Amino acid sequence: MKFTTIFGELIDTPCVGCIVADNSKFKEGRIFQTQLWDISQDFEIPYPGMIVISPLRHVSNYMDLSDEELHELHQLTVICKKAIMDIFNCQKIAYMFYEKPNGHVHFVIIPLHGLVEINDKYAVLSELFAKAPSLLKDEQNIQRVLKTIHDLKVYFQNIIL
User: pTM for this one?
Assistant: First the structure.
């Protein structure tokens, strides 16, 4: 599968989620990594603070996550939520979970900070996908994404799990 990231990097991989294990890919988008998880800016939707938490090993079924992975995922989700709320001074956050056959389990945290007007609270992701092309073309938005990545990296510097 070939795709282009929001920063114009062409990536060819059989599993999009597995690119997180390859630290030579999507360097600008990576925020933090533990021994079990990667935290990165979403590489398809240029929405500042849209964080994807992915296991570093290929896991296509949530039930295949280990107890250690589940515990750390919970810790990282809480930390990400606090970081986003601090950085954007927002109170609302959407959570998404993806599990696709033969794909890669991942969790998405989306700050609802007003950059994109969300009209249907049950269709957050579909509205973001629909509005992503206009965001992608906006250089000011890409700069906001890069600043958010930087701010999140700073936030995670002092995190010890």
Answer: 0.85
